[in-house]
Amino acid sequence: MKIIRLDEVDSTNEFLKRENIRGDVVTVAKRQTGGRGTKGRSFSSESGGLYVSFQREYGDFPAENAFKIMVNACTAVCKTLSSFGLNPVIRWANDVLVNGLKISGTLIENTLSFGHISRSIVGIGININNTLPAELYGIATSMRRELGAECEVESVFKRLLKNIRREYSVEEYKSYINWLGKDIILRRSGGEERATALDVSPDGKLVCRGAEGVFGVSSAEVSLIL
């Protein structure tokens, strides 16, 4: 797999889309000036972190199986962090936390064609040695903060590259969710509600039990009640 290394870029995902690079390729940058998360939110991307996008082209990947791409990405991140002595937890669907604070995020952008995914760009950001803005202190963390020592960014990248080449099951993904069976807050367009998280379905829905029974959630912001 070809690796493109950049000192600075607006976004590794945007770089791959803008340059229209074909085939399976990895782009990694030392710094992003316009890092993005889900729902268009910014992702602090100062030097010292890992900012990488994995592009893969498919011949015949049904769109209904898109959650498998998320499963592979998040599980690979968790396995990478675990190998450095951390205890990651997935906050459905794509955030990874350590000690209740966000340490990694994933942004997946798929290109669809006639009900199939023809190309997928998986952007992953991991806070390693980068200094986080003061306003994120109680929200986000880094490997350096959690371990009390700096980690070599290249070592984290190589471990992630190795892990993301594997295929993982939904069960492996769920093994990093330690809050199933517990109460959560769901924030959706209609407001917020308290529910009990029961499971994650094979198609990626968060299965919950609320006041009106059991239901599946396709998109929501989840807050864990710790």
Would you mind describing this structure in some detail?
The protein is of the alpha+beta class and 226 residues long. Helix content is 21%, strand content 40%. The chain is built from 5 helices and 12 strands. The chain has helices at residues 12-19, 67-83, 143-147, 153-164, 170-174, and strands spanning 2-9, 25-32, 50-62, 88-91, 95-98, 101-113, 116-126, 183-188, 191-200, 206-210, 213-217, 221-224. The strands form 2 sheets. A 7-stranded mixed β-sheet has the order 1-2-3-7-6-5-4, sandwiched between helices. A 5-stranded antiparallel β-sheet has the order 11-10-9-8-12, with no helix packed on it. Helix 2 (67-83) packs across helix 4 (153-164). The chain is globular and about 50 Å long. The termini are far apart. The model has no long low-confidence stretch (mean pLDDT 92).
Count of DSSP-assigned helices: 5
CA-CA gap between termini: 41 Å
DSSP helix fraction:
10-25%
The whole-angstrom Rg is 17 Å
Major pleated sheet: 7 strands, mixed
What general form does the structure show?
globular
How many runs of DSSP E, i.e. beta strands? 12
H-E string: EHEEHEEEEHHHEEEEE
Order of strands in the sheet with the most strands? 1-2-3-7-6-5-4
Given as residue ranges, the uncertain stretches (5+ residues, pLDDT < 50) are none
Helix/strand-derived class?
alpha+beta
Averaging pLDDT over every residue, what do you get? 92
Strand content: 35-45%
